[in-house]
TrEMBL record:
Zn(2+) 1 binds at residues 184, 220-221, 330. It comes from Cynoglossus semilaevis (Tongue sole). Residues 432-459 are annotated as: Disordered. Its EC number is 3.1.4.-. It comes from the Eukaryota. Its cofactor is a divalent metal cation. This is Phosphodiesterase. Keywords: cAMP, Hydrolase, Metal-binding. It holds the Pfam family PDEase_I. Zn(2+) 2 binds at residue 221.
């Protein structure tokens, strides 16, 4: 039986001496080659981000951004530590009021608690929640949802270990990524919670299913480097070699999560076979988010619906639906209200453009959708909605028969697609007009300032 190599992600440390760095490199090399000890964690954290940041992405323009990110990370950490030390829960003074939000006691703002009382609504503003929790949205959301479902009591989870694991998970995301950061993870987790509440699914799910669904959602992009798999392959990154150019990022997210679970000891009190099963099922869920496997899952989902043979009393069918739910949650941004959806669209495109700028700087072929000069946000979004989001959510709506939530999401999706299409058309018209004016002789009637697209003027 092949051994599982466990990874842990971590923050970049710039202060280490050259001797320490050389020692770490030798340790990492030894760790990759050692496959005879499946449960031994590497002595040092080995994340995807440090190699990319130090060798390629660290430019003079970004140094200030990295330093600012470090200050924010320290501020979040101190806030989280203050919470852990002062919480009545960790002192053993746990309120017995049913449904109480004791995981968010008086140490935290009332606004955040009030927002959590509406966490199951589709218009939940994760950006506002992240600000109210001082950047701790993922930790606070997961604590609340675990409490809502009674997972802490059911699995007899140690609270200190749980907070340790969630802290590792949140800090494992890189805040300098415009899109793939802890706020995205919290957003996907909140969407997953909404999907787990769908009547057809909720009445059949076990608490283990819920634990797996929420944890996979929170961890599905941990230690994301802010670049895609083709970039890792063509730059010969060690992760691409490790996972043989197949589901590279998703495999890393999974192995990193397993490393955090083991390092925190969250599941150490459970029987070995159960904890190993949880690790494997988390891997199956996270690997399902690989966008290159979209058609594989979509066709299987469609066949189940057409044959009407989904039996949610079967563990395997429930697991498949958790995979579908996580895939939906991962790409549900176009199904949000326009103001939220637009923010996510701009963030993901900014991340694409940053990769394209790096590729251009190092004379690499610019990846699709990463050229800011030719790939506009409206064009990227209309394509993404048409080829990825719409086909998936059409089948999800059939599965829910359809629920009120599905109808709400479909309504937002149609409106957002129409709005991006109008913006794309308006932008194309301006580009054509600008080109025609450039061809006119100097002093012609085409002089004047270039027109700008005002989004407010697009209905």
């Amino acid at each position: 039986m092949s051994c599982l190599m466990v990874e842990r992600c971590g923050a970049v440390t710039f202060e280490k001496s050259e001797t320490q760095n050389a020692t770490q490199v030798r340790m990492l090399a030894d760790g990759r080659q050692s496959t005879c000890h499946p449960v031994v964690l590497l002595a040092e954290r080995r994340g995807s981000f440090p190699l990319i940041d130090l060798r390629i992405l660290k430019t003079s323009d970004q140094r200030g951004e990295v330093e600012s990110s470090t200050r924010k990370k320290v501020k979040r950490l101190l806030s989280f530590q203050r919470y852990c030390h002062s919480s009545r829960l960790l002192r053993g003074d746990v309120p017995q009021t049913p449904g109480s939000l004791h995981l968010l006691d008086e140490d935290y703002l009332g606004q955040a608690v009030h927002m959590l009382s509406k966490v199951g609504t589709w218009n939940f503003d994760i950006f506002l929640f992240d600000r109210l929790t001082n950047g701790n949205s993922l930790v606070m959301l997961m604590c609340h949802l675990f409490n809502v479902y009674g997972l802490i009591h059911h699995f007899q989870l140690d609270m200190v270990k749980l907070h340790r694991f969630l802290g590792m998970l949140q800090e494992g995301y890189h805040s300098q990524n415009p899109y793939h950061n802890a706020v995205h993870a919290a957003d996907v987790t909140q969407a997953m919670y909404c999907y787990l509440k769908e009547p057809r699914l909720a009445e059949q799910l076990s608490l283990l299913d819920v634990f797996l669904g929420l944890t996979a959602a929170a961890a599905h992009d941990v230690d994301h480097p802010g670049v895609n798999q083709p970039f890792l392959v063509k730059t010969r990154h060690h992760l691409a070699s490790l996972y043989q150019n197949t589901s590279v990022l998703e495999s890393h997210h999974w192995r990193s999560t397993v490393g955090m679970l083991r390092e925190s000891g969250l599941l150490s009190h459970l029987p070995a076979d159960l904890s190993q099963d949880i690790e494997q099922q988390l891997g199956s869920l996270i690997l399902a988010t690989d966008i290159s496997r979209q058609n594989e899952f979509l066709l299987t989902f469609r066949e189940h619906l057409e044959n009407q043979d989904l039996d949610l009393t079967l563990a395997s069918h429930r697991h498949f639906m958790l995979q579908i739910a996580l895939k939906c949650a991962d790409v549900c941004n176009p199904c949000r209200d326009w103001e939220l959806s637009k923010q996510w669209s701009e963030r993901v495109c900014e991340e694409f453009y940053r990769q394209g700028d790096v590729e251009k700087k190092f004379e690499l072929e610019i990846s699709p959708l990463c050229n800011q000069q030719t790939d506009s946000v409206p064009a990227i979004q209309t394509g993404f909605i048409s080829y990825i989001v719409e086909p998936l959510f059409e089948e999800w709506q059939r599965f829910t028969q359809p629920s009120l939530l599905s109808q709400t999401m479909t309504g937002h999706l149609k409106k957002n697609k129409a709005r991006w299409s109008r913006l794309r058309y308006a932008q194309a018209s301006v580009d054509v007009h600008s080109c025609s004016r450039d061809d006119e002789p100097e002093g012609g009637e085409g002089g004047g300032e270039e027109e700008e697209i005002e989004e407010e003027n697009i209905p």
